[in-house]
Design goal:
The chain starts with a helix and ends with a helix. Helices cover 79% and strands 0% of the residues. It has 14 helices and no strands. The longest helix has 30 residues, at 183-212. By secondary structure, it is mainly α.
Length: 305
């Protein structure tokens, strides 16, 4: 019954929740950055997420052992995400605002169809392209000022685009892994590997600063929410989407991340919420709707009626 539900419209709310959690993650990260540096934030986030996931896997009996022939693929996928992706995203966020950072991250679907076609021959339709172009226009409206200047520093934009590239490559690897293992196990393993990748950087660059910080309620709450919602549930829901509706359609939902980030930023950290952002978000949503509509099915229905 659950699989039948998820194979149809039920998968869309699940993917939507992953975008809500990722949209909020920019706000949670901004709060944590008041206390910890990006490397410490990512390391602790992945460490806590790994613990949460493996405890659940153990007690639920859903553990899957990774086959020997898939271990290299899993290792490389974890190198791109969470390691390289989080490096680009978090350091980019440090030099930008939550909303602008999420806008740049939301360009992932613009490049995903090309990667999907070249690697796994996933079909690219005019509907996909049209919806993606609409979404990209909306992102540009949010990103560019009236005087044509950017709402982000060049360094921040460069780092965030690096995160975009890492996410696209990661999705290709994920597509191959998801046919053999559950999203829960894949994300658990990748987060453990990500924490291992970040451990040397944490010990070399951040350990001294980490020991000087006295955690308070705001820091602990934001870090736990990052770990549970953004690094655990969001990635599991995203992987479920890739498995059920494909790489292109799932990644198009990423265009909604800046919409949620702008809303949450205005509520929780008082980031300015302008009419330009509202217009851009509206165009982004339109693009997502266009991409997800099955026009052939609608035409068949019209002919039958």
């Amino acid at each position: 019954m659950i699989n039948k539900f998820l194979s149809k419209a039920g998968i869309y709310p699940i993917v939507l929740f992953s975008m809500i959690f990722w949209g909020m993650s920019f706000v949670w990260s901004t709060i944590v950055f008041k206390y910890y540096n990006p490397i410490t934030t990512i390391f602790l986030r992945l460490l806590l997420s790994s613990a949460i996931l493996f405890i659940y896997i153990k007690f639920s009996g859903k553990y899957q052992k990774i086959r020997k022939e898939d271990r290299k693929l899993l290792l490389v996928s974890a190198l791109f995400n969470p390691f390289l992706y989080f490096l680009g995203e978090n350091f980019g966020l440090k030099y930008s605002t939550p909303t602008i950072s999420s806008v740049i991250i939301a360009t992932i679907p613009v490049f995903t169809p090309v990667a999907a076609y070249l690697t796994v021959r996933e079909k690219v339709t005019w509907t996909n392209i049209t919806g993606i172009l609409f979404s990209f226009v909306g992102i540009a409206v949010m990103l560019i000022n009236p005087d044509l200047s950017l709402n982000a520093s060049p360094a921040g934009a460069f780092l965030l685009m690096g995160a975009v590239a890492s996410a696209i490559i990661y999705t290709v690897f994920l597509k191959k892994l998801i046919v053999r293992y559950s999203p829960l196990n894949i994300i658990a393993y990748q987060n453990v590997l990500g924490a291992i990748f970040f451990l040397p950087l944490f010990l070399i660059f951040d350990i001294k600063h980490f020991l000087t910080v006295r955690p308070n309620g705001e820091l602990i709450a934001s870090l736990l929410q990052l770990s549970f919602f953004a690094s655990s549930l969001a990635f599991i829901f995203f992987a479920m989407g890739v498995k059920k509706i494909g790489m292109i359609r799932t990644n198009v939902f990423s265009n909604l991340i800046p919409v949620f980030t702008a809303i949450f930023s205005a509520i929780f950290i008082s980031e300015i919420f302008t009419m330009t952002k509202i217009a851009g978000m509206s165009i982004v949503i339109l693009g997502v709707i266009i991409t997800q509509i099955n026009w052939k099915s609608l035409n068949k229905t019209d002919k039958q009626t």
